[in-house]
Input
Amino acid sequence: MSTSTRRRPLLFFAGFLIVSLLVAGLVSYLASPDPDGLDTVARNGCTAVTGAGGEEELQGTCIARNETDHAMSSGPLAGYAVGGAEGTTGVAGVAGVLVTVVVAGGVFLLLRRRDG
Amino acid sequence: MHTHAVAMHMSDGLVNGPTALLFAVVAGVALAVALVRARADLDDRTAPMAGLVTAFVFAVQMINFPILPGASGHLLGGALVAILVGPWVGIVSISIVLVVQALLFADGGITALGLNITNMAVIGVLVGWLVARSLRRLAVRSKGGLVAVAFVSALVNTVIAAMGFVLEYAIGGAGGATTGTVFALMGGLHVLIGIGEGVITAATVGAVAAARPDLVYLLRGTGTPLARRSATEGIVR
Output
């Protein structure tokens, strides 16, 4: 493994990308649905109540009550789902990895030193 | 009433406008400095690596792991990118992840982008780098040393990045909890999240060092057994 990845650097880079695609595309289904650290703090003091339309509402006094709707909340990949459809986290994740690697790869290749 | 959506980063409205603007300026200046200084660390070999590390951080940030009943955490990635691609490229890397998440996935508010970049890209990466750099002697000594340094710097970067939010809330929080409560809860939860961040960072840095130690920024130019082995023999355990 180590010798072959040194002789063929593309093998290491391809492997790295495949790992990212697998994590975003498959492992993402195993992710905890519970709020993260920041969100837990923001919701502290509120109770989540399911509203008439099935959406979650926060009642009480907490930081998260100040949250305003996201400007991109109706985007095609908003909330890590394709068109808001359930079970599409992996597809959204794969799209995110591909967009990120193209954007970041592009930025870093443009920035790199090109002295001989 | 506002409908609460699950998100991983600061949403719009958690701090007032002037505070959001202040940290947008802080983030902008830091990012500009990072973009200039990143050039020196980017070449034909490290530029693709930096792109792939950025995509990896995006992927792993999707994986919320349980820390307490009803609460989870996820990788921030500051120490991870600092150790693998260096602090300046690292700041740009995490910033790109946050911009993609905010614009494409509606995760992290647009007006909160400066706050999120300040906390996770600037504070997280620089603190992770400072800890890793100060422990570099241990990191270059052995594979175990490197993995231990990765764990510690990731744990510290998580807790200090969380303190970024506490500071922003103290300056211009929109209300709903006292600063003391926010400090105690953010600190406590992020020690637990930091352990998870440490494990993921240690495993990732260990795996990269096993395959391509020449691509680990922290080991660059140290002339240590780990780096020498990679440079001369091409065979690494």
